[in-house]
Design brief:
14 strands, transmembrane helix, membrane, single chain, 5-stranded antiparallel β-sheet, alpha+beta, 252 residues, 9-stranded antiparallel β-sheet, 3 helices
């Protein structure tokens, strides 16, 4: 036996060759089928019913809006000729005294007759808070006279015959000069103004308030001017004047 501790060259190391390991390939799992392919016929039917229900709801809403707009259009067509026809039938002046002493004043007493016709065949009119007064060149020369509330049926005519009074109403100096010129000519233009509110009634429906403004021009003839104060009133004037009527929606 060879002595391992014997001096001499070392033996060559042994060489081993290890073959490479072969790892077996793992097969990939199959992809899941598409969701659409997995939907049953029951799910498809449920989706169709939801779509049909939404379409029905949209159709009902559209029909409701169309009917509402149609009703509004019909009401607008019915109420389009809303203005009644006013006529100043008569103006009787009993007192028209001008005082030229400082301050200048005017005393007036007169009676007027105003008629209103409802020209609509299916709409009634409520007149409320009516008052009437006289003006001269935009200055009020009589106190307002309150008229009773009135309901006017289809094609009906309403008539009011109020008295208008103005006791020593102050008149501006510039306005007094114009009044004296008119009196020298022998006629004075007064404006009879009627203000108030109206409502329309169609069946059981009653509208909101509308402001009513009526302006009736009235030419009053006189005999002559008395420098000592006072005016001789001429013949009573009886006439018919068709007047313009103003209407606007009230905020009340």
């Amino acid at each position: 036996m060879r002595n391992l501790f014997q001096e001499g060259p070392l033996p060559k190391p042994l060489e081993f060759s290890v073959p490479p390991l072969k790892v077996p390939s793992i097969p990939k799992p199959p992809l899941p089928p598409p969701v659409k392919a997995a939907m049953s016929s029951k799910d498809c039917g449920h989706h169709d019913r939801d779509k049909a229900r939404h379409h029905l709801i949209l159709t009902i809403i559209a029909v409701f809006i169309a009917l509402f707009l149609f009703v509004v259009f019909l009401v607008w067509i019915i109420l389009l000729p809303t203005k009644p026809r006013f006529v100043l039938q008569e103006a009787t002046v009993y007192v028209f005294n001008v005082s030229t002493t400082d301050p200048s004043t005017l005393t007036t007493s007169m009676q007027i007759t105003v008629a209103s016709k409802n020209r609509m065949g299916k709409v009634g009119i409520y007149y409320q808070k009516l008052d009437v007064y006289a003006t001269y060149r935009s200055q009020q020369v009589t106190m307002p006279t309150v008229l009773p509330s009135t309901y006017q049926d289809h094609k009906e005519i309403a008539v009011w015959s109020p008295f208008l009074y103005g006791n020593t109403i102050p008149v501006a100096p510039g306005l007094m000069m114009a009044l004296e010129q008119d009196l020298n000519v022998g006629s004075v233009l007064l404006n009879i103004r009627l203000n108030g509110c109206v409502k329309w009634q169609v069946g059981t429906w009653i509208s909101g308030k509308y402001d009513l403004n009526v302006n009736c021009p009235a030419y009053i003839k006189f005999g002559g001017f008395n420098p000592d104060g006072g005016i001789t009133v001429g013949p009573v004037m009886k006439f018919e004047t068709v007047v313009q009527v103003g209407l606007r929606s009230s905020d009340e």
